[in-house]
Design goal:
single chain, 334 residues, mainly alpha, Arp2/3 complex 21 kDa subunit ARPC3, two-stranded antiparallel ribbon, two-stranded antiparallel sheet, 13 helices, 4 strands, 64% helix, 3% strand
Length: 334
């Protein structure tokens, strides 16, 4: 679901970044009003979990892959505004250090993954939870909300892909950016998400919610970590397991490089050309491209990337938390 650079036109990316800017501004303001020093580490841990779970690629029919995100889970734990910030940081690190998602397309990826997914998922979760007043309702809400959230997010991304050939093409009619129209992009994105990714996301959300309620209920009800050793241990286990994501060797739909897209078969025929915007577009050279490290086996590079990504997210939020005054102490002084 991460849109690479040069799949969307610069003007589309600018529009999406402009749409995301007020969302981030409101999210930061809301989070600052609600967040305490004790809650800040949980933001980093949630970002780390999301970063890692996105490395577990799952093969789907059609020769592409999908992955979970955990956006609805973070919204349930910390609220949708805090989830937006947490996911935004994860996306930033993925794009800047690992080339997963574009730099120019960052606004679009943030809009789809850090805004649409957690807010839609949380809305559905809240609606069900409020109508089924029991623990069962909470789990049903989490399951349905996470399933709906990731599929709505995928649909928005498919629309962004699909409008490109309609709006941006050369005199010969060839697309300048993403070459697949809406009638191709929407089913290509939605079918794998409806059939596979939605269920993977729901399973991850409900499993993690069950685990956190058992070992650290304060994370759910107060946003503060309890029994952090158990949470960090789970994080470590997932990091050790990330090489499983390498078993799915294919790319996700819409994430092919310029060197591969011309030969991608869609609707029974290869594209046969490379869109000009992709061929001569923006290129960002990252330190650990595609979660690989030069000179190391793929599995070790993948694990090292997971360690670096998770560590950076946790450290960033701990540093940010150090600048937050303890609200209880502040209120007492006042």
């Amino acid at each position: 679901m991460h849109i690479p650079d040069n799949y969307l036109s610069p003007s589309t990316c600018a529009v999406m970044a402009a749409a995301m800017a007020p969302v981030l501004a409101v999210s930061v303001r809301k989070a600052k009003a609600e967040m305490t020093k004790a809650k800040m580490p949980m933001l980093g841990i949630c970002a780390a979990f999301s970063f890692i779970v996105m490395m577990f690629n799952v093969p789907v029919p059609g020769g592409t892959t999908v992955h979970a995100i955990g956006g609805t889970l973070i919204a349930i734990l910390l609220g949708p505004f805090s989830a937006c910030i947490s996911l935004t940081i994860a996306l930033l690190i993925q794009a800047l250090l690992f080339g997963d998602g574009g730099i120019v397309a960052l606004g679009a990826n943030m809009f789809n993954i850090a805004f649409v997914l957690p807010f839609v998922g949380y809305f559905v979760y809240t609606c069900i939870k409020n109508r089924v007043a029991s623990e069962r309702g909470e789990y049903i809400g989490a399951l349905v909300g996470s399933y709906v959230g990731i599929n709505v997010s995928a649909c928005i991304a498919a629309i962004e892909f699909g409008i490109q050939p309609l709006l941006f093409h050369n005199a010969a009619g060839q697309a300048l950016y993403c070459p697949y129209p809406l009638q191709v992009s929407i089913p290509a994105m939605l079918i794998p998400h409806l059939l596979v990714a939605g269920f993977v996301e729901a399973f991850f959300t409900v499993s993690m919610l069950t685990f956190i309620k058992k070992v650290s209920p304060g994370s759910l009800y107060e946003g503060e970590i309890q029994r952090s050793n158990a949470i960090y241990a789970l994080l470590a286990v997932l990091i050790c397991l990330v090489p499983l994501g390498l078993l799915a060797e294919a790319s996700a739909w819409g994430e092919w490089g310029a060197d591969a897209i011309g030969s991608v078969v869609s609707q029974g025929a290869a594209l046969g050309y490379v869109p000009e915007g992709m061929l001569h577009g923006f290129k960002w050279n990252t330190l650990m491209e595609d979660y690989a490290v030069a000179g190391l086996p793929a599995s070790f590079g993948y694990i090292l990337s997971a360690v670096c990504g998770a560590a950076i997210t946790v450290i960033l939020f701990r540093i940010a938390g150090s600048f937050i005054k303890d609200k209880k102490q502040h209120d007492a002084v006042v």
